[in-house]
Design brief:
Elements: H1 6-42, H2 57-61, H3 77-87, H4 98-123, H5 129-141, H6 145-148, E1 164-166, E2 173-177, E3 199-201, E4 225-227, E5 235-236, E6 249-251, E7 265-266, H7 272-275, E8 284-286, H8 296-306, E9 312-314, E10 336-338, E11 360-362, H9 374-377, E12 384-386, E13 408-410, E14 417-418, E15 432-434, E16 439-443, E17 456-458, E18 463-466, E19 479-481, E20 486-489, E21 505-507, E22 512-513, E23 529-531, E24 553-555, E25 562-563, E26 577-579, E27 584-590, E28 602-604, E29 609-613, E30 629-631, E31 652-654, E32 661-664, E33 678-680, E34 685-689, E35 703-705, E36 712-713, E37 724-726, E38 731-732, E39 749-751, E40 773-775, E41 782-783, H10 788-791, E42 798-800, E43 805-808, E44 822-824, E45 829-832, E46 846-848, E47 853-854, E48 870-872, E49 879-880, E50 900-902, E51 907-911, H11 914-918, E52 935-937, E53 946-948, E54 951-955, E55 958-962, E56 971-973, E57 978-982, E58 995-997, E59 1002-1006, E60 1019-1021, E61 1026-1029, E62 1043-1045, E63 1050-1054, E64 1074-1076, H12 1091-1098, H13 1105-1127, H14 1129-1146, H15 1151-1157, E65 1169-1172, ...
Parallel strand pairs: 2-3, 3-4, 4-6, 5-7, 6-8, 8-9, 9-10, 10-11, 11-12, 12-13, 13-15, 14-16, 15-17, 16-18, 17-19, 18-20, 19-21, 20-22, 21-23, 23-24, 24-26, 25-27, 26-28, 27-29, 28-30, 30-31, 31-33, 32-34, 33-35, 35-37, 36-38, 37-39, 39-40, 40-42, 41-43, 42-44, 43-45, 44-46, 45-47, 46-48, ...
Antiparallel strand pairs: 1-2, 52-53, 54-55, 65-66
Helix pairs in contact: 1-4, 3-4, 13-14
């Protein structure tokens, strides 16, 4: 045929070569512009993008390098252009007829078909044998290539193989793309015989820690694109890659995989500077996860000096340090910059605001400090800004320009504060606004409603207040997360708008929202999660007519919802999780109402006023949903629901705090079909465990809580694999069996406290090698403490044996790997000295050894335990002067974290050293930990996995047991010792103290006025010392002081006046003869006889006999008149009546004379009183010694001070 002419074939081949050559030259000229456009386009991808793809091969090599051949009869672009240009000549040749043009067009099309067909014939023989052989050899090196590379078959054209691209002019392989095929095994060296490769992509495979150093990359001198990311390669990056001078894109990123621990690349020798020194053509450098370990100057200088035209720089997680060097300012062509997950410890440089081409900036989790330069927010091309998880990054958000292109603003986990600026509404392109866990406050601006492109909104864990603005225009919104703020008011009605058809998640938990919950929320067509727990919703939950089929999680717990549960709630057919716990729902609820919710797996109705019943009809048991979690705590249950026997998927069951009596049924251990791992039957009325116990050798039970019941008899031996076992607060009376430890193979928490257990602790308990908490407190256990508990255990964190009868001493050789954080041995009979090896417990936070018989000096060596917060040594026989107290010259200890320090009721003596108080830093300075407790976290499962320490102290004059030791509570008790000297003034610096007790000592001197600085003080006891002087007026400013005892000292002067002091009774000041100024004590300024005056009067020997004779005569005469009247009843009544009238006439004129200076002796046990008719009150006339013992309620005149004087004299 005519098109097989050899000359024509040569001509067509020459034309094809010329076209390919021109296209290559054209594309090479436009390469940089094309790459900029492509990078700009791809930089506007969504926030979820995690990596940058390499430039496509077509941009490097042009149309001559195609991924696969065009169809057989496809017209080449060059020919199309040629035909078009020729057809466009017709206007210049009007003489040509239309039919001629048509024939010319047909001829040209025929030539195109001939050219395409001849090119296909030529291409059929493009694959070179040596390159086909190299590829097959490469395939054979893979261990799973048969299905991944099925097209790679011997005898076929390798240019047609999947992932292979050839040069149509030379037939050589120019591009190899095997990415994302999960290839494993080895990488054959034959790959490097393909020396014409310009693009090599082996990303996302599993080459199992193959070392790149083993391969001669320098042979691939034409490579422009090299992508070996996340393929399992490890070790040092070879220097040969640094010789590939034509490289435009280099991606060696790696992700750490647990199954491939050595799959991390590194740049140590040679380093980054050496590798990229000759790569001046690089536009993209992606080394995420490569261990570079370079400081700020080194890596910044290397990148800026060697690759000035860089457009993409991604160095995520490369162990880089800072600060960022100014040399980076030279990379003015940057489109994407990613430096997150490094340790830069640097501020954001101002020069980033000059990168006008910057599209993506990601610098999360890299230790940024300072504030965000405002210039960054003014970059017009910036679409993604992510500086999240930098807690030292502070400042406020600036004004946002109206022409901003921001699509993703991610600032969560920073310390940015202040309000959101109203200009946030200018970010019209914004689709992601993630500001959670910051310090923002104020109102959410109403302009946020202008963000019509918004899809993800997260403002959780901030301080936003006020009402939620309307959301009517958010047609693209998918997530609204406003949890843990201070938002108030109702949920906006616009949230239930039908236009929010894409909304899948609403999370507004932990706010102060109120009002009713809109019924329209349950009808949102795409909503999957409705989380409104921990608010103040108090209305009845309304019925709704339309139930969203996609809604799978509804959590309305911890509100004040009331009334009955709406019936429409049972129409949510897609519901999987329903929590209505901790509300005020009431009424009787039959549990079979939930049987139509076929997908329900998690149901929580706890802590309401519901009466839950499972009915007497068992026909529905089999159709009830397969529940995995059922919580019916405080639901007024009177029996364990019988339908549970048919539940074979249940894993969590909480029936606590009900009224279930009798025996725990035997069948309960067999439900769940091996999935049952949590059972809480605490706070019920169970008396026994139904036996015999089943075979639980294969039980999956992890948490078993039976505390606070009435269980009695021997300790039940139940599941073998239990992690948490709580039998506390029951009536078990047996001893702990030696075999008990075989049931503790995996136990972490064991509590048998508050029972009546007897006998000794079996040594076999030490075989529970995973045990972290052992609480055997408040029993009748005896014997000695097993040495293995403290000498061998390296896991035990809490040892609580208080309230038993243990004797002997504390084990001597405590392990150097001691992990104990709490040791409570209070109220036992332990003796001897404290073992110095206690200092090995460097994690110790609570040490309570009170109420024992220890005999030792103060253990100053415990001061090196930097975590110690509670030290109780009271009621022992510790002795000696405080020379070993913290801060003294003889002591190196500090006790800097100590917040409860109780040394009361011992035999310490001597002066209180000032430095002792200076070192108690935790009593001076508050931490930023907030309101926490001193306890022990033994599992990360739930709040119930936190062990609360218990400490008993003297506060406000009585023994007080702290069931939770708050970190804000500080107490210092040195009472009942033999301390002398004065109270150091420095004690006033302990301004965070809540309780200070130095009573029952021999302290002298004045009360330091510096005590008025202790602004948190609630209880102050300085009684039974020898303190003198006046009470400092500064004490009256202690507004929290609710208990004060200054009794039985030598204090004088007026008692200070203040709101708190007016509440204290006489007992707070009694025993101080020189005090005055309250309604119970003498008034200040009254005349009193001094001791010298009384002594002088009594010692006088001058006798006036004339006065004596006159007095005797008057007395005798009166006796003759008065005595008969006193004996004769009628006369006695006359006497009393007239004497009362006479005194009443005299008293108003002489109130002070009668009440203050005159005392009338009496033999009657009653104090004479008079009643004032118009007030009905009784005032004393004669105060006598007998009045103090009188049973009558005497109301003294306000000016009468004789009672106080009598009290002083008594």
């Amino acid at each position: 045929m005519w098109w097989s002419d050899e000359a024509l074939i040569k001509e067509q081949r020459a034309v094809a070569n010329e076209i390919a050559k021109r296209h290559v030259e054209s594309n090479l000229e436009e390469e940089e512009g094309v790459r900029v456009d492509e990078a700009t386009r791809s930089a506007r991808e969504t926030e979820a993008e995690t990596r940058v793809r390499p430039l496509p091969m077509q941009q490097v090599q042009g149309d001559a390098c195609v991924r696969s051949r065009p169809p057989l009869f496809t017209v080449p672009d060059a020919v199309k252009l040629s035909v078009s240009s020729r057809l466009s000549l017709s206007p210049f040749f009007p003489a040509m007829s239309s039919s001629y043009n048509h024939r010319l067009l047909l001829l040209l099309l025929l030539l195109c078909l001939i050219k395409s067909f001849s090119t296909e014939l030529i291409a059929a023989s493009l694959c070179l044998p040596e390159e086909s052989s190299a590829l097959l050899q490469l395939k054979n090196g893979f261990s799973n290539s048969s299905s991944k590379l099925a097209s790679w078959q011997p005898g076929s054209d390798c240019c047609l193989w999947d992932g292979v691209t050839c040069d149509p002019a030379t037939g050589r392989v120019t591009a190899l793309d095997l990415s994302g095929r999960s290839l494993s095994g080895g990488l054959d060296i034959s790959l490097f015989n393909l020396t014409s490769l310009t693009s090599l992509n082996l990303a996302y495979n599993l080459f199992r820690e193959i070392r790149l150093l083993d391969f001669p990359f320098s042979k691939l001198a034409d490579l422009a694109v090299l992508n070996l990311s996340n393929a399992g390669f490890g070790g040092q990056i070879p220097a040969g890659i640094g010789r590939l001078e034509k490289l435009v894109s280099l991606d060696l990123s790696t992700l750490y995989l647990e199954e491939l621990p050595n799959s991390t690349l590194k740049l140590h020798d040679p380093g980054l500077g050496t590798i990229i020194r000759n790569l001046s053509n690089l536009k993209e450098l992606l080394l995420d996860g490569v261990n570079i370990s370079a400081d700020g100057y080194e890596w910044c200088q290397a990148v800026s000096a060697s690759t000035p035209g860089l457009q993409v720089l991604s160095l995520r997680g490369c162990s880089l340090t800072g600060p960022l060097h100014s040399s980076l300012a030279g990379l003015r062509s940057l489109l994407r910059l990613r430096l997150d997950q490094n340790n830069l410890n640097s501020s954001l440089p101002e020069f980033l605001g000059n990168f006008s081409s910057l599209v993506v900036l990601r610098m999360s989790s890299c230790g940024l400090q300072g504030s965000i330069p405002e210039g960054i927010f003014r970059l017009r091309n910036l679409t993604v800004l992510d500086v999240s998880d930098n807690p030292m990054l502070s400042g406020r958000l600036p004004h946002f320009p109206e022409d901003s292109a921001l699509e993703s603003l991610v600032l969560f986990g920073t310390n940015l504060s202040g309000p959101l600026p109203p200009s946030i509404g200018n970010l019209k392109a914004l689709s992601r606004l993630l500001l959670s866990d910051c310090s923002f406050s104020g109102l959410i601006p109403r302009s946020i409603a202008n963000l019509t492109q918004l899809a993800h909104l997260d403002l959780s864990f901030n301080g936003f207040s006020g009402e939620i603005p309307p959301m009517r225009q958010w047609s693209k919104i998918t997530e609204i997360i406003l949890a843990s703020n201070n938002l108030t008011g109702p949920i906006p009605s616009s949230l239930g708008n039908e236009g929010l058809r894409n909304l899948t998640k609403i999370d507004m938990r932990n706010n102060s929202l109120s009002g009713s919950i809109p019924a329209s929320l349950f009808a949102l067509p795409s909503l999957q999660l409705l989380q409104l727990s921990q608010n103040q919703f108090l209305a009845q939950l309304e019925e709704f007519s339309i139930a969203s089929p996609s809604l799978n999680t509804v959590d309305l717990s911890n509100n004040k919802l009331q009334g009955s549960i709406p019936t429409s709630l049972f129409k949510l057919s897609g519901l999987k999780v329903l929590s209505l716990a901790s509300n005020n729902f009431s009424g009787t609820l039959e549990i079979d109402r939930f049987q139509n919710l076929r997908n329900l797996s998690n149901l929580d109705l706890s802590n309401n006023m519901l009466v839950v019943r499972d009915g007497s009809n068992s026909s529905w048991y089999g159709s009830f949903p397969k529940i995995s979690t059922l919580k019916l705590a405080s639901c007024n249950l009177e029996k364990i629901p019988a339908f549970l026997q048919s539940q074979d998927q249940i894993s969590t069951l909480d029936l606590s705090n009900n009224r279930i009596p009798g025996a725990i049924p035997r069948w309960i251990w067999s439900i769940g079909n091996g999935n049952f791992n949590y059972l809480n039957l605490s706070f019920n009325l169970f008396t026994s465990v139904e036996g015999p116990p089943p075979n639980l050798s294969k039980s999956s039970m992890m948490i078993l809580d039976l505390h606070c019941n009435m269980l009695q008899g021997p300790i039940p031996l139940l599941p073998l694999n239990t992690i948490v076992l709580d039998y506390s607060q029951n009536n078990f009376t047996s001893f702990i069996p030696a075999s008990f430890s075989t049931y503790l193979n995996y136990t972490i928490f064991l509590s048998l406290s508050n029972n009546s257990l007897t006998g000794q602790i079996p040594f076999s308990i030490c075989s529970a090698s995973y045990l972290q908490v052992l609480d055997l407190s408040d029993n009748n256990l005896s014997g000695s403490i097993p040495t293995c508990l403290m000498e061998s255990s390296t896991e035990l964190g809490v040892l609580n044996l208080r309230g038993n009868q243990f004797h002997g001493s504390i084990p001597e050789n405590i392990s150097e790997r001691c992990a104990l954080r709490t040791i409570n041995l209070n109220q036992n009979q332990l003796e001897g000295k404290l073992p110095r090896s206690l200092a090995n417990c460097y994690l110790l936070e609570v040490l309570d050894l009170g109420n024992n018989q220890f005999v030792d000096t103060f253990p100053d060596w415990l001061g090196n335990l930097s975590a110690l917060q509670v030290l109780v040594l009271k009621s022992n026989r510790f002795y000696g002067a405080p020379v070993h107290f913290p801060g003294t010259e003889e002591s190196n200890c500090t006790f800097s974290k100590l917040q409860i320090f109780d040394l009361s009721s011992n035999q310490f003596a001597g002066n209180l050293p000032e430095n002792c108080f200076k070192n108690l830093k935790a009593m001076m300075f508050s931490s930023d930990d907030g309101l926490q407790t001193v306890g022990y976290r033994f599992l990360q499962l739930s709040q119930s996995s936190y062990y609360q320490n218990t400490v008993t102290i003297m506060s406000k004059g009585q023994s007080m047991t702290l069931v939770k030791v708050l970190t804000i509570f500080r107490a210092f008790d040195l009472s009942n010792n033999m301390f002398n000297g004065s109270i150091p003034e420095v004690i006033g610096e302990l301004n965070l103290l809540c309780v200070l007790n130095i009573s029952h000592n021999s302290l002298i001197g004045e009360i330091p006025p510096q005590l008025g600085n202790m602004s948190q003080l609630e209880s102050l006891d300085l009684s039974l010392n020898n303190l003198s002087g006046k009470i400092p007026r500064e004490l009256a400013s202690l507004t929290f002081l609710s208990f004060l005892n200054l009794s039985y000292n030598n204090l004088v002067g007026q008692i200070p006046q203040g709101p708190q002091f007016q509440t204290f009774s006489n007992s707070s000041f009694e025993g101080n003869k020189g005090l005055c100024g309250t309604r119970f004590l003498k008034q200040c300024g009254e005349e009193t006889h001094s001791d010298s005056e009384l002594s002088s009067s009594e010692s006088s020997t001058d006798i006036n006999w004339q006065c004596i004779i006159i007095g005797l005569g008057f007395g005798g005469g009166m006796a003759l008149f008065v005595v008969p009247l006193m004996v004769w009843d009628k006369g006695k009544r006359w006497y009393n009546k007239h004497i009362d009238k006479m005194l009443w006439a005299i008293l108003p004129r002489l109130p002070c004379d009668i009440c203050t200076n005159v005392k009338v002796g009496a033999e009657d046990v009653n104090c004479d009183t008079v009643e004032i008719e118009d007030e009905g009150r009784r005032f004393c006339l004669f105060c006598t010694q007998l009045e103090l013992r009188s049973g009558q309620a005497i109301i003294h005149h306000v000016e009468c001070s004789c009672r106080n004087r009598l009290a002083d004299e008594s």
